[in-house]
Amino acid sequence: MRDLKWKTLKSEYLFKDMWFTVRKDTCERPDGKLVTPYYVYEFPTWVTAVALTEDGKIILERQYRQGLGETHLEIPGGCVDDTDKNYEEAIARELLEETGYAFTHYEYLGKTSANPSTNNNWMHMYLATGGKKVKDQEFDDNEDIDIHLVSMEELKQLLRDNQIVQSMHVTAIMYALSKLGELRF
Question: CA 11 to CA 2: how far, in whole Å?
């Protein structure tokens, strides 16, 4: 197989912030052609989970998203913090903060990228089971989340009706449905 990896000759940061950084690279392809400028968006690592309660309900979150200017249903998740020891601890923290539920089991489903051509981060996906409400939600400053508990059939119908539009969340849901024997290829 041919080596298709580019060599980064130079990087310049154009914008740096806690949640979003833009970098301008000068790259060389294996055939010697220079690619400049090439913009890369740096984001923190993300985690998300399809979260099932003790009685088999799926936890969905309804929240406003400024990028689209719309309110939609999603699954819980967020950024990995420096204080998180690993991805499982990060998703457990996010679930507890956003939903108030604690879970007895976490199964890693893999990772996905929103757009590997420009984004440098991964989202790690989990199936969390045995959820029990143990406290009130604790939002970050910009969060305002309504919790909705749905059945497996209701979740599938939401997917069929294109009511869950966050593509990485749809990916995580599909992996979880497959793991649960609810999706067959």
Answer: 25
